[in-house]
Amino acid sequence: MKNSNKNKNLLYVSNKPIKAFLFLLSLPWFILSVKLIIDNKAASGIKLFVFGNVFLTVMFGVQFYFRKMLVLYQKNLDSSYNKYKKRKIIKDKGGSLK
């Protein structure tokens, strides 16, 4: 159970690492789009900028949903583990579990 608490606590870390990852992922797209706009290729630069924003928004949404699913899974796992620990053995019915 101690490992379960440790893993559960890792799921509740702050959003700073995720935001830093997305920022570093966005740098090449945004730098290239600004360079394209400066080089009089505004249409390509704007398309790249929009694509980068949409991609990062989808990535953030997927990470948020995945993290939410992991927390829910961990809570269900903990509750089922606690129920398993508290089960009673009925001796008069042949030792079956209740």
Structural class: mainly alpha
Roughly how many Å apart are the termini?
22 Å
Radius of gyration, in Å, reads 24 Å
- Runs in which pLDDT lies below 50 for 5 or more consecutive residues are none
Instruction: Give a short account of the largest sheet.
Output: 2 strands, antiparallel
Shape designation: rod-shaped
| Series of secondary-structure elements, N-terminal to C-terminal | HHHEE
* Count of individual helical segments: 3
Cross-sheet strand order for the largest sheet: 1-2
Overall strand count:
2
Strand content: under 5%
**Average predicted local confidence, pLDDT:** 78
Q: Give the assembly state of these chains.
A: single chain
> What portion of residues is helical?
over 70%
Topology diagram in text:
Elements: H1 2-11, H2 16-38, H3 42-85, E1 89-90, E2 96-97
Antiparallel strand pairs: 1-2
What's this model, at a glance?
By secondary structure, the chain is mainly alpha-helical. The protein contains 3 helices and 2 strands, in the order αααββ.
